[in-house]
Amino acid sequence: MEKFVVRGGRRLSGEVDVHGAKNSALPLLAATILCGSQSVLHNCPSLSDVDAACMILDYLGCGISREENSVVVDTSNLEHFEVPDTLMREMRSSIVFLGAIIARLGRCRLCFPGGCELGPRPIDLHLSALRQMGIDIREEHGYLDCSVSARGIQGTKIVLSFPSVGATENIMLAAVLAKGDTVIVNAAREPEIIDLAQYLNKCGARILGAGGGTIVIHGVRNLHGCEHTVIPDRIVTVTYLCMAAITGGEIIVNRCIPSHFDAVTPVLEQMGCRMNVYPDSIYLNASRRLRGVKTIRTLPYPGFPTDAQALIMAVSTVAEGTSVFVENIFESRYKHIGELARMGADIKVEGKVAIVDGVEKLYGADVEATDLRGGASLLIAGLGAEGITRVTNIGHIDRGYDGLEKTLREIGADIQREKEGLNGSCSS
Ligand code: UD1
After folding, report:
1. Residues whose beta carbon lies within 6 Å of some atom of ligand 1
2. Are 230 and 28 in contact (CB under 8 A)?
3. Catalytic entry in 108, 116, 273, 426
4. What's the pTM value of the predicted model, to 2 decimals?
5. Where are the domains of the chain?
6. CATH fourth-level superfamily of 2-19+232-427
7. For 317-362, how does the pLDDT look when each residue is reduced to its tens digit (9 = 90+)?
8. Nearest Cα to Cα of residue 50 among 230, 190, 228
């Protein structure tokens, strides 16, 4: 077990590059199954969640290797249609393998993803959509046993009651090789959906409208592998911006796509950061005392992302005035608040609403990462706090940030990764 030890109060300054998006890489790795040949994914981050997806592919019988940031997947052999429980539990989003495996093999067995750090993670929308496409799904003793009749998977019109990202991805994966056309109404519009569609289209799929509310998928007979570059991680970009902002710093984040976090940039500006937006980089300068934000409501894309809620909240703890957050996507996405309070933050929670009264200063404390972005919010707070913050349970943070401490040290942060149990001092 490891922890991060951060000595706060150092002004961050410099340039960083952003790695590929975890939330794109995972469905893309699942999608390689449909091709039955070799695909190369460039800009694929080195993260524990990506490793888990690679282990699933390896278990299924695929050839998989990594060369720096590129992952080569050969899916010509697919020997298994089951995903072992241990691998399913490793990563809740592994449910996206369902659509890919069933489309390729006509059979799939995996365990229910169950709940996670963010609360219940229902998959009713996934299952109902796949059933409408003619997939027989039996739910038994926590397992999903899925099969397809001789007629195969049938394209159809699916109306989602909520634009679920995971459900949209599973439907797309099941639909590309289906008979006929599939129309997804109220589809998720996240950039990761567009990335998945672009990869699949390069492989020979016929997907129209990804990024809009209606996606049309004309089923094709087969796909072939291709080379594809994973889009930059918009949430990692926002994390670096928040880290610089809380330290009164100045940063250029390179190799990002600012239009992917259009809902976040105005919030940082409203807080008093000076920002310049370029096509593939963004500049932030936070030389003034920051101000609180008006109400932030998390919403499906292009609204304010749930993944950025904890990050902006950490910055708002030391901003002048009151900031209000309304979390609409996940039930249990305020677990970081108790930990931020240990550092001196003044936050009240009432159901979906969190009210932050900005304090002059946060103080370093021993805190625990409770989930991925909640953990990142503690690092943001620790970088801005006076004294030393020790963040434990950082396996959550490693799920989403590649080379984090190295990148942060390059722009002036004092952060170390240590074995838990040691109370070692920070480097200077
Ligand atoms: C969600 C985020 C996504 C983010 C990802 C990682 C949204 C809309 N989605 O995607 O942007 O990158 O987490 O943190 O912000 N739901 C159901 N039934 C289902 C599926 C989902 O009720 O079958 C509900 C979930 O409980 C949740 C909401 O829909 O309240 C969002 O789910 P979904 O978009 O599917 O979640 P992820 O794909 O994990």
Report:
1. 23, 121-126, 162, 164-167, 190, 300, 305-307, 329-330
2. yes
3. 116
4. 0.96
5. 2-19+232-427, 22-229
6. Enolpyruvate transferase domain (3.65.10.10)
7. 999 999 999 999 998 799 999 999 999 999 999 999 999 999 999 9
8. 230
